[in-house]
Write a structure and sequence with these properties.
The chain is of the alpha/beta class. The chain has five helices and five strands; from the N terminus they run E-H-E-H-E-H-E-H-E-H. The protein has a single domain, classed as Rossmann fold (3-Layer(aba) Sandwich). Strands 2-1-3-4-5 form a five-stranded parallel sheet, with helices on both faces.
Length: about 130
């Protein structure tokens, strides 16, 4: 975990370049350190290596999807406690229920809206 003096580290798992850049730019402007992955497998690997303070996980990813990546993180003692927030354009009520049922700690809709995005991130990395 982070020391009090270091920036919280956030892993962004996103396969869309524009969405990745937007999330990275917002987070870095807020003083967070970022890690980036473009596939679910890469996200799981980076989470295990770096144990970030928060994971922002797209649901629709090449290879394993965000829900399967979350299952793998939760099944590993080293990464089970990391908060994972779904970031997805799937805003149908059934999708939202599936995301919540899968065990995500939160939900951010796309397109990303600045204020709710920052508030959600802050809520999950408070105290870092």
């Amino acid at each position: 975990m982070s020391d009090a003096g270091t920036a919280a580290r956030i892993l962004i798992v996103e396969d869309n370049d524009k969405n990745m850049k937007l999330a990275r730019d917002i987070l870095q402007a807020q003083g967070y350190a970022t890690l980036e992955a473009v596939t679910g497998e890469e996200g799981v690997r980076l989470a295990r290596e770096h144990v970030p303070d928060l994971v922002l996980m797209d649901i629709q990813l090449p290879g394993i999807n965000g829900i399967e990546a979350l299952r793998q993180l939760r099944a590993d003692a080293a990464t089970a406690a990391i908060p994972v927030v779904a970031v997805t354009a799937s805003v149908m009520q059934t999708d939202r229920r599936e995301i919540t049922a899968a065990g995500f700690d939160g939900y951010i809709g796309k397109p990303i809206s600045l204020k709710p995005f920052i508030e959600t991130v802050r809520g999950h990395v408070k105290g870092k």
